[in-house]
Amino acid sequence: MAIEHADVLRAAHLARVGLSEDEATGYVDDLSRILKMVDQLQAVDTQDIIPLAHPLDATQRLRPDEVTEHSQRERFQACAPAVTDGLYLVPRVVE
Amino acid sequence: MMQWETVIGLEVHVQLATQSKIFSGASTAFGAEPNTQACAVDLGMPGVLPVLNENAVAMAVKFGLAVDAEIPETSLFERKNYFYPDLPKGYQTSQMAQPIVGPGKVEITLDDGSTRSVRIHHAHLEEDAGKSLHEDYHGMTGIDLNRAGTPLLEIVSEPDMRSAKEAVAYIKALHAIVTYLGISDGNMAEGSMRCDVNVSVRPKGQAAFGTRAEIKNVNSFRFVEKAIAFEVERQIELIEDGGQVVQETRLFDPERDETRGMRTKEEANDYRYFPCPDLLPVTLDGAYVDHQRALMPELPSEKRRRFENQLGLSAYDAGVLASSRAMAEYFEAVKDVCGDAKQAANWVQGELSANLNRENLEIGDSPVTAEQLGGLIQRVMDDTISGKAAKQVFQALWDGEEDSADAIIEARGLKQVTDTGAIEGMIDQVIADSPVQVAQYREADESKRGKMIGYFVGQVMKASRGTANPQQVNSLLKQKLDQA
Known about the structure:
Low-confidence stretches of chain A: none
Oligomer: heterodimer
Number of helices of chain A: 3
Structural class of chain A: mainly alpha
Strand order of the largest sheet of chain A: 2-3
Structural class of chain B: alpha+beta
Number of strands of chain B: 16
């Protein structure tokens, strides 16, 4: 599977990563090589293999349903660019 | 004229009634000061790790069992990636490929009492996002992340509903199940149940589905019905005018009673799901599932059948009383005190519901307790008071005048007079005071007398200040008037 310039720009936009035209061109080559390797892997018969969800062979531990965290709003908001009335302020978003 | 059929599928987000969040120990209590319940995990601070809340898992499993669903041994959490300021991590931790609840079914009851089954495609656990406040904060948007990380169970139906009424019946059935199970408070006004509605139309008889629109932001039973009605009309008109329905997300505006297309960017739906590396697969063995099953209360459909078969209530009464757990428990408590299911059902659905509706109260807020209402019904059944006096007593209980029906009956002197001698004395007085009416009555034809006797009954009841037993007054009056 070949990757095109537009695919790279689209992936970069989805991840909100800024790329220059030169960088994008470089990634077209890099990503194409990675995909070629994936193509090679596709040749293996994985019919009866259960997809691996996690490399650790363990299951999720659960935690009791208890409130253990209390407000540290002032500390968290100390590094926020703008706050008012306890709210974080962000550039206006319109739906 | 083309006949159209509506096809509806629903995605219902139920906020689970846990104390703490799905992946952190922050509180989920509603209405706190902004951002006082958003901890480092909820904010997506660097280096934090999520740990799954065992109660959220138990609640999801109970829901699955209540809808006869398969509970897979393994389920997985995945990341749904998108950027929005109220989603601090840049992804929502959710489930897609292997959700916690597999296919199931819900029985819905329509207005005419008939039932049908709606298939559940699956239900999955996920975290809620925060809230964006678009009021003007110096030209900026305010973000409150208290809700971020609140556990949600998203219940996805198959496109099995064919009318707005069926969709409403389905949501009501889900609402009853989650509130019975105690896994959600079901408070739609506070957003504890939110619906996305998928609607399409197709010519009647056509097997293939039409193109659907997804309507978001539908947060009450009434809005579901209105949003669907509007959307169906819009789609049919569009097609009949030669247009085509576009697959899109629309927003319901309850103020204008219409749906509007949302401005969406092309890549808006490219969520790039992948397994969350911070969370391991969740495994639930048979013993765990059996344990959860053992903890489940009687469910609405079981209760409805028991009310019908064991208590002898009509299908309609049983359906209404079993529709909410609070209502069913209140009714059963009244029945236990007064010993008569039919009377208890009549009072709960009649006088009590009328008063609750008028004052816009939930049954849990009723000023009249089940104990008090049961005590009142007892006094009607043993003829201590008349049905008319009972309504007065109920109102006095409602207004909090005394704390039992007996105390009110005593204080107001409402005890019914059943002593024949006393009633006869009053009747004789009324007859003596009404010579004209008595003469008219006695001249009248037998067929007209039934109506005319009402005047005398009224006078006697007035003389007794409503305490005479009306049946006795009636028969004694008839004897005396017909004697002449």
